[in-house]
Design a protein that fits this description.
With 287 residues, the chain is α/β, with parallel strands linked by helices. It has 13 helices and 5 strands. The termini are far apart. It binds zinc ion.
Length: 287
C-alpha cells in the first residue's frame, strides 16, 4: 500500500496496511472511529486502492485514482438515504443490492461506502444485506463507517473485518479558525455575517481543509443533537444543535461536501461563496 501523499498518522497507516493481503483487501470492512472525517478519508483511500491501475497502489496519479479521490468514480458510490429520511429504506437497499451484481463500468471493482452506517442502517436494512455480505459478487467491496461498531448487528459484524481508528483529530490552525468563522456565520441570523465569513475560502491553499473542518463542526452539531459527544468543537456543536434540526444539519453537511467537490473543480470563488451563502441560508430558513 502506498501512503505517500496521504495525510494519515502512523496508527491509521498500520490499521489500513493490516487489511492488505497480497494486494487484496476484505470484501466487507467496518471502519469504526468517532472522527468521521478520518474514517471517510480511510474509506476513500481504500476505494482508490481497489480501483487504481497504477503500480504502487493507490498511485494517486492514474485516472481511476483521480476520479475516486474527487468522488466522481462511476463504480464507487456513497449511497445516502433517499427522500431526506435518516435511514435506508428496504426499497433502496434492494436497489443497491441489485446494483452490486451489475459489472463495474470503468474499473475492475466496485465499492459502496455507507457513511454513518450504525445510524442509517436499521436492523431490517442490515438483515436484507446479510446474504450479499456472505457471498459478495467478485470485486465488490462494502465499507461501512460508524461511530460504534457495536451498534451493528452481530450477524453483520461477523461477516466484516473491523478496523478501529484512533480518535486523533489533527487540523491546522488556519482552517480551524476559518471553519469556526463560517459556522458562526451559519448560526448568525445576518446574511452579511455569513457572506463575510465565507470570504476565507479565497485563501485557496486552505479552502479544502477549511471545508472539511466545517463539516466536522457540523457533525459535532449532529452528535450533540442525537445525544453523543462532540469531537472537535463542543461549544459550536451545542449552538448548532439548539438552532437547527437534525435534518437541517444533515443537509448542511451534504451541501458542504458538494462545495468541497466544486472547489476541487476550480470553481470561481466568488460564485462559490455567493452560492454557498444562499444555500446555507435557504436550509436555515426553510420550514
Ligand atoms: Zn492509481
Amino acid at each position: 500500500m502506498n501512503f505517500s501523499g496521504f495525510d494519515f498518522d502512523e496508527s491509521v497507516k498500520k490499521s489500513l496496511s493490516a487489511l492488505d493481503n497480497h494486494g487484496r483487501i476484505p470484501h466487507a470492512i467496518v471502519i469504526e472511529s468517532k472522527n468521521r472525517e478520518a474514517s471517510l478519508e480511510a474509506a476513500k483511500y481504500l476505494s482508490m486502492y481497489v480501483v487504481c491501475t497504477g503500480d504502487n497502489k493507490p498511485c494517486k496519479v492514474c485516472e481511476q485514482c483521480h476520479k475516486a479521490e474527487n468522488k466522481g468514480h462511476a463504480d464507487i458510490s456513497y449511497p445516502r438515504p433517499e427522500n431526506k429520511s435518516k435511514t435506508y429504506s428496504i426499497k433502496q437497499m434492494r436497489s443497491i443490492i441489485k446494483d452490486a451484481y451489475i459489472r463495474p463500468s470503468e474499473a475492475d471493482a466496485k465499492v459502496y461506502v455507507f457513511e454513518d452506517a450504525d445510524n442509517r442502517l436499521t436492523d431490517i436494512a442490515q438483515n436484507s444485506f446479510l446474504k450479499l455480505l456472505e457471498e459478495p459478487p467478485q470485486n465488490v467491496y462494502f465499507i461501512l463507517l460508524c461511530d460504534s461498531a457495536q451498534k451493528l448487528l452481530v450477524t453483520i459484524l461477523s461477516r466484516c473485518t473491523v478496523v478501529r481508528l484512533k480518535n486523533n483529530v489533527k487540523i491546522s490552525e488556519k482552517p480551524l479558525e476559518y471553519a469556526g468563522k463560517i459556522v458562526k456565520g451559519i448560526i448568525s441570523s445576518r446574511e452579511y455575517d455569513l457572506l463575510l465569513a465565507l470570504n476565507v475560502l479565497a485563501d485557496k491553499e486552505n479552502a479544502d481543509e477549511t471545508l472539511s473542518t466545517v463539516r466536522m463542526i457540523l457533525r459535532d452539531g449532529l452528535a450533540v443533537s442525537v445525544g453523543t459527544k462532540a469531537v472537535l468543537n463542543e461549544k459550536l456543536g451545542k449552538e448548532l444543535a439548539s438552532r437547527f434540526t437534525k435534518g437541517k444539519i444533515i443537509e448542511m453537511i451534504e451541501l458542504t461536501d458538494d462545495s468541497a467537490i466544486k472547489i476541487k473543480q476550480n470553481i470561481n470563488i466568488n460564485l462559490l461563496t455567493t452560492w454557498l451563502c444562499g444555500e446555507y441560508r435557504r436550509i436555515s430558513w426553510q420550514r
